[in-house]
Recover the amino acids of this structure.
């Protein structure tokens, strides 16, 4: 199978995945007990049955579920993800407004995981069974096993409440601080572009804690995978030859071993970046980070069907797209993948 044919087949395989995700999300939301109209009006509402039915008809909720899904699917194909009940705006507009916050958090978490995980994984693999190796294995397993929101609560309690070292978990900036003029939507980048270093420091201080918490599972995965790869590569013949020639151990590790050991880790990192973009729902909720994850959680609580389905579709699309790019790049680098 040629490269372009392989890429086309992988692109076409994304369609049934996204259709399945949209159908499952739509069905699950309608299976949840409760009436979004009653939730919207509130328990203290004095609206009569006629007003409730009129509102239900206005939102299209009086139609059969499968008809509602077909209408939703048709509109989604034309770029209309519906209108949010609790914000009153189009879902796509809400998601676009919150997308930069989620991207900024995901990229910061990804960078922290790489900067901390790659050196630690390489050193742990180069010194197996040392105290550093044991500590890295225990730490990485802990970070992979424990849920991120639990670490988030611990960080807020210790860092903000007990020690006062962290800013309040109020989102991207303090309650009295104004955001920088929008260029990219990333507060740290926009503040630097406008030379506003006070806002940059404030945005960075609010970003570091949730980004560090979000990075923990990726950090643990990088350390474990890279350690195993380094241990395996160190047993190669060319490494023994380099050592026999008297090459310094540090030069052997960082020049000859690390480059080959990183290949399997880099493949997984692409998938991890997609997961970070769509999987920071709980971390955003704990830190009140105004991204797509917090919007998703608030919509579930209010039984707001359109935002939940729309946000899920965006999360799934990001993950599927990243997987597609990883598969295609892997096939481009290794042609044998296309034939298997």
């Amino acid at each position: 199978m040629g490269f372009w044919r392989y890429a086309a087949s992988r692109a076409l395989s994304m369609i049934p995945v996204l259709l399945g995700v949209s159908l499952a999300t739509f069905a699950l939301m309608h299976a949840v007990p409760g009436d979004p109209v009653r939730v919207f009006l509130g328990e203290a509402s004095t609206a009569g049955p006629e007003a409730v039915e009129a509102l239900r008809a206005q939102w299209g909720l009086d139609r059969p579920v499968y008809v509602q899904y077909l209408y939703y699917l048709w509109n989604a194909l034309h770029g209309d993800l519906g209108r949010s009940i609790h914000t009153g705006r189009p879902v796509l507009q809400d998601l676009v407004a919150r997308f930069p916050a989620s991207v900024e958090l995901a990229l910061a978490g990804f960078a922290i995981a790489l900067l901390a995980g790659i050196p630690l994984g390489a050193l742990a693999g180069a010194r197996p069974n040392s105290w550093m190796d044991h500590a890295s294995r225990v730490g990485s397993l802990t970070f992979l096993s424990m849920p991120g929101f639990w670490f988030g609560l611990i960080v807020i309690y210790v860092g903000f409440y007990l020690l006062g070292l962290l800013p309040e978990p109020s989102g991207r900036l303090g309650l009295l601080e104004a955001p920088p003029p929008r260029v990219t939507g990333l507060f740290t980048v926009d503040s630097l572009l406008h030379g506003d270093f006070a806002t940059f420091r404030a945005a960075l201080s609010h970003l570091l804690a949730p980004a560090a918490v979000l990075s923990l599972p990726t950090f643990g995965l990088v350390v474990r995978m890279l350690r195993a790869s380094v241990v395996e590569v160190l047993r190669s013949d060319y490494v023994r030859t380099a050592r026999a020639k008297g090459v310094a151990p540090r030069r052997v590790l960082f020049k000859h071993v690390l480059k080959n050991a990183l290949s399997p880790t880099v493949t997984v990192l692409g998938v991890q970046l997609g997961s970070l973009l769509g999987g920071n729902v709980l971390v955003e909720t704990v830190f009140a980070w105004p991204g797509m994850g917090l919007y998703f959680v608030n919509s579930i609580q209010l039984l707001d069907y359109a935002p939940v389905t729309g946000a899920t579709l965006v999360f799934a699309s990001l993950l599927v797209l990243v997987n597609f790019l990883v598969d295609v790049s892997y096939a481009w680098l290794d042609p044998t993948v296309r034939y298997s």
